[in-house]
Please model this.
Amino acid sequence: MRWAQGVRAVGLGILAWLITRADWGQLYAHLVGVDIHYLLAMPLFTVLMVAVRAWRWNRLLGVHGAPFSPWRAWTAYATGVFLGAFTPGRLGDLAKALYARDERGLPWSQALAGAVLDRLFDVVCMGLLALWALAHLGWLGAWRGGVLPTESGLVLGGLLFAGAVGAGCVRLMLRTQLSHGGALVRLKAFLGGMGDQVSVLFRAVGKSALALTLLAYIIYFAQTICIARALYLPLSAADVVAAIVLVGLASFLPLSVAGLGTREGLLALIMAHRAVPESLEAALAYSALFFAFCFAIPGLLGFACFWARPLSLGALRNTASSEFNAGEDG
Model:
């Protein structure tokens, strides 16, 4: 839809505005001065993180007696990473469910429940960490104390406003769609059945899946800290983790493509708040490396897996829609 494309352009607009305000000489100095030794380990971090997350997802599938082999699970999960980051509809979770249905013979509701719970572990973990991140950065009372610089306040205010607009658009879309053809009744039935399936999976392997979630985030945060060290940023490990947590949550808002704009805006805000010299240029340099090693490289690996095990995106959308409308797999 055109309105959705317009909302996603908000992030690109923020990125363009930040770039026009940056000193390109300082930005170049940050990038050419990077410590390459830290970056050499980046692909290994990616492979390990995908492996742990694929292990967690495979544990969920194993509840129904239909796990993949470790390699097949890794490639399917990597494909989901690619489709989730670089497709307009963020179809990564649906792709994993379709692989489980077509290759392991699971009913759609069971296959989708595994993908949903797999994502919920990440969302809940990030949500809890966000409370710590706000407290760590001292933002809970920042507005009243006048801690935030004017430009940083404008960035944060712009992101919050854009987020509210995006959420309002999504709500309007859902209300419009659900007002036709008994869709609300089908949605309630679908969510009810999905909740039952997710509950079964959590009771079976919830503890081990939580442990794997923590391990995956340890690897992920170690990777992001290494990027900061490569750029010699005067940030503590806790500062970097707090920044990445808030950036991760912002990526859930339908405001950008692959987090472009929202990521740079929040990083600039946090680095200015922590008095990092040349904070805007440092934020843009960090974001460039973060995009390269946490998005582009995982995306390329996922694309290679997707190429080897292709899925029709149109068929994927149609499958999800038809299964929802038919109310199958009760």
Remarks:
- The radius of gyration is 21 Å.
- Residues 183-230 form the longest helix (48 residues).
- DSSP finds 14 helices and no strands in the chain.
